[in-house]
What does this fold into?
Amino acid sequence: MIRILTPTRAVFKNDLITRLGIIKRLESEGYPTGLEVVLVGGPEKDLKETDKIKANLENHAKNTYLTVHAPIEDKDFTKKWTDLTAYDGVETFYKTLKLGIDIGAKIVNVHSNKYIFGKELQAREFQAKEKHDLQRDTALGIDQARVASGYNGIISLENWPYPPMGDRDNITTIGETPYDPVIYTLNDMRQMALLFRSEKDKVCLDTCHYGITRKILNESMEHGKEKRGVLDVPVLDEQPELSRMPSLMGPLLGYVHFSDCKGTWDLSKNSFYQEGFVPGEGDLGTECSMFLRNLERSDLPVLLEVKDEDFQKCAETRRAMDYVSSILKKYASNQQNSTN
It folds into this structure.
């Protein structure tokens, strides 16, 4: 049975308590649960308050299954402290892994965050070898941080949407758009499996990110690369339906971020996608339920990474949990009926 998680900013006690309260109902229904400790900002923000994070978890979340999400860049895409191919990024990830050790995190999740801007890609051709080299250096950076920290749990590298941050209305031209070319297609995920240094290095499949990528790349194949404004893709491969991903990824898959998406990215129309919708309430629709049913036979942790309009009420997260619970109950009922 899958394990259902919700994110928390554990540096704030009230955030932690709120999220623990949300998962109690699922625990009462017999589902294994947990929390993902989200680190906001770089080494100068949440990672500077690890003592507070550890104290809050010790006081309020003993024996809770925990994962950690390493910091990601939010506004300034030129920073290097989350670039796993650079010294600063490896050092930041090392500190994240040390926190993971201290709190007993089963998984530490990380983005590659190797940004190239559209204006640079418009000026030159992006080669497949360059992409492969960035993937190799990312795998090496992960391994360096693992060895230096002594972390022995699962490290999961999360797929980015293509392109990242498409829902930012301050990005109005292709030239302003940041791209992370390391991992966003199924082929990227498979390639990373060949480059990872440890058998405990896995991929985190973010369904929202994959849904966005699948839509833009498949439409680009259908309508033409130039029409869609696609950049930095040496080879356009058709991306399979979300429901097929568990079987196609197999043991490479170590973690899931589960949410829906809306819209598409097409700067010629000044349109942007949006992330973090309740599963089934966005453009992925029934693909979410099929994906969940195909995943249910595993024991993978699944983070419900949806955006709540109101932190205290967390209505969207509660709807996401209701959705997952109803799908799993229906699946279990069908399985029982088929064996009778």
